[in-house]
């Protein structure tokens, strides 16, 4: 086996053309085998095997730097950079990440997890290289889908100012840029990277500049004539007009051709973009036929491509998907907006039933939110469905375009709280803190699937900015008998006793239920209340609890700073200074990847950990834990 012979990253440069082809096949087999066990991003990684091999052949890594946009397609990069033996623990707690991590390897030049960032990061690294007088290459790899993100164009606009080499690789796996025309474009690509051609072009311009009166107009006329011809035969004129040299398209599965175009790109003394055409899921038929389903996949059966564990009960996304369609059927003003996540957010069924009222804006969260604000101003009821970690990218728009105008935009925030194996960049642990600081915003979180339905029904009628936040995974089916009508800013009493009061919100209500059972098993009375609203906090409920309880525990799946618990604590300390309050929340830290249950235990928010904290805190210790 060729792959087994690679003991060091530089060993790949000793392989011949036939061995490189075998290596690509062996890497695909390795990825399919390992991801079928651990889960992970499969289709995107199968599509960039040859591209990654070509970069390891063409560049001196890690001296040269490769920045992967999003980063979920970096598995081959990790294999070739010496981490193959660690793939049994890919995305597992304590194992290697599914994304580039600088702390994990010097070959990982920049941490990435969200889209459209690699050109900006690469440009910054290239500028740092130049200021420090260094001479290595910087390569930013970006997918065609990421070009729907405005940040990529902001970076391209600035990349045109580069006076030294900076390479951008556009990984086009969905024909989003029109096909080039025949051999003429290949000829022009070659001649425009030729040193002699570029020297001649500079000499001609320099000479004409010295000609009085007619020199400058003549240079402009030549340039416009040349660009007009190129416009007809080169699809990359968008990039050329921004001042970035365009090369391609190149077959992204032809290692020889890729290495050739990298050699040409390295000659350019400014920013250059290489257009690479790849096939997502290449080499595994189920992934080739359905790349979206194999984008991020749980453990699966290799022979069939089907998940090993069948879903027995609906998850919160399923509940949202069904309910929002029901509400949209009754109210034609309801429209749905998402940022390249119709499947992940559950809006695929909405898109099929109400195609004229569904808007997928691509990877453009800022635009999604402001366009929703415009729809609301026009009299519609926009529902913006996003993952918690992606909502962060449109925070200014939430403040500036939605909340200042007090517009009725409903934010349905999926994957809130701990999400597990995708790690720091995807954990949805900041949204309470971010949203509750904004005037006019209201925030709530359901305890179970029925409460999510009720909150959505309430939220679409509310005349102002509103956020409903729910976690990843199977929807909780307990506490069904407790279904008080949703009232604005009002919590819900579930079990009322005395002395100890558990005040939980969202996913932590089910945890609090288990805590109460364990606490009562030791003979201690315990009340459980469901806060429901994080903003506004139900102070009437707190007042009621304060009558018979002198020990409070707040529980939330959000960071402590700026979250629910500190709001409650501030109110209690102001009005009931004798009451002790223990805040259970996530630490002021980024949470790594791993199984959610293991993460909850490690972070001290599972029921056993909370019971221990309660005993320590209320047993006389003055040290507060969180």
UniProtKB/TrEMBL annotation:
Q: Where is the Transketolase-like pyrimidine-binding domain?
A: 314-478
Recite the UniProt cofactor note for this protein.
Answer: Binds 1 Mg(2+) ion per subunit. Binds 1 thiamine pyrophosphate per subunit.
- EC number(s) for this protein? 2.2.1.7
InterPro entries from the UniProt entry: Dxylulose-5-P_synthase, THDP-binding, Transketo_C/PFOR_II, Transketolase-like_Pyr-bd, Transketolase_C, Transketolase_CS
Q: Which residues form the signal peptide?
A: none
What are the record's GO terms for cellular component? cytosol
Task: Show the SUPFAM superfamilies listed in the entry.
Answer: Thiamin diphosphate-binding fold (THDP-binding), TK C-terminal domain-like
Q: Which reaction does it catalyse?
A: D-glyceraldehyde 3-phosphate + pyruvate + H(+) = 1-deoxy-D-xylulose 5-phosphate + CO2
- Whether Magnesium counts among this entry's keywords is yes
Query: What's an example GO BP annotation here?
Result: terpenoid biosynthetic process
Query: Mind telling me which Gene3D superfamilies this protein's record contains?
Result: 3.40.50.920, 3.40.50.970
Subunit structure of this chain's protein: Homodimer.
Q: What is this protein called?
A: 1-deoxy-D-xylulose-5-phosphate synthase
